[in-house]
Amino acid sequence: MKIDMMSLDGSTSGSLDLNDDIFGLEPRRDLIARMIRYQLAKRRAGTHAVKNRADIWRTGKKMYKQKGTGGARHGSARVPQFRGGGRAFGPQVRSHAHDLPKKVRALALRHALSAKARDGGIIVWENAAIAAPKTKALKESFEKIGLRNALIIDGAQCDENLQLAARNIPHIDVLPVQGINVYDIIRREKLVLTKAAIDALEARFK
Q1: Could you tell me the sign of the dihedral formed by the alpha carbons of 137, 152, 36, 41, in that order?
Q2: Torsion angle of alpha carbons 126, 128, 129, 135, nearest 10°?
Q3: Is the pLDDT of residue 174 over 90?
C-alpha cells in the first residue's frame, strides 16, 4: 500500500510503499488481545501479600478447655475466625507473567500495525528531528496537524530534542523502533512512524 510522507509542519514530502506483509494483513483481534494480556500481565509487580496463620505471632496455648464451654472447640487464636488471626487463601507474592510463543508475539505486532493502517491511523514522517527542545513550540506544531493522541516511533536512536520536548505533552509517547509494542500502538489514536522506523520494521520481519 502507498502512503504519503509528511514533515512535522504538515506538508507532504513524497510517498512511500508499505509492505503488505506487515501493514496489509486482515487484523485478528484475538491475537492482538492475547498480546495485550501478555504485556499487562508481565508488567504486574505481584508484590501483594497477606499474613496467613503461620505468619501471625500469637501464643500457642489452647484458648480454653475442650469440653464444657458450650461453644465450638478451638485450639489456636491464629486462625482466620478470630480478630487478629491470619487471612485464609489471601494473595501471596508471585509472578503474573505467562508464556506466549515468540512467533505469536511477532505476528500480533504485524496485526496491530495492519489494524492501524486499515483505520487510517498511520502517519509517516521523513524524520522526527526538531531544532530545539521546546515543548510549547512542539505542542503548537502538533495542534496544527491535529496530533493529540499519538505514539511516535523513530529509528534505532530517537532525536533527543524531540524526546525532551514531548515528554511533558499528555497522550504523546516517543519510542525507538526497538520499543514498539502492541499495547502502546492500540491505546493511542495515531501511530507516527519515521522512514527509518519503517525500514527497521521491514528488515526485522523480512
Answers
A1: negative
A2: 140
A3: yes
HSE (CB half, 13 Å, CA atoms) of 69?
9
CA torsion, points 78, 79, 83, 85, in degrees to nearest 10?
50
Q: Where are the domains of the chain?
A: 2-45+98-204, 50-90
Give the pairing type, strands 2-6 and 12-17: antiparallel
Beta bridge partners of 12: 6
> Would you state the pLDDT for residue 130?
92
Q: What digits encode the pLDDT tens for the residues 154-170? A: 999 999 999 999 999 99
pTM of this structure: 0.85
Percent of the chain whose pLDDT exceeds 70: 100
**Considering only CA atoms, which of 92, 93, 95, 91 is closest in space to residue 43?**
95
CA atoms 129, 201, 112, 99: torsion sign: negative
Q: What topology is assigned to 2-45+98-204 in CATH?
A: Ribosomal Protein L4; Chain: A; (3.40.1370)
Whether 1 has a pLDDT exceeding 90, the answer reads no
DSSP secondary structure string for all residues of 31-96: HHHHHHHHHHHHT---------TTT-----S-SS-SSSSSS-----S-STTSTT-PPTT---S---
SS3 labels along 137-170: HHHHHHHHCCCCCEEEECCCCCCHHHHHHHCCCC
Instruction: Compute the distance between CA of residue 131 and CA of residue 125 in angstroms, rounded to an integer.
Output: 16
Q: Rounded to whole angstroms, how far apart are CA atoms 129 and 40?
A: 31
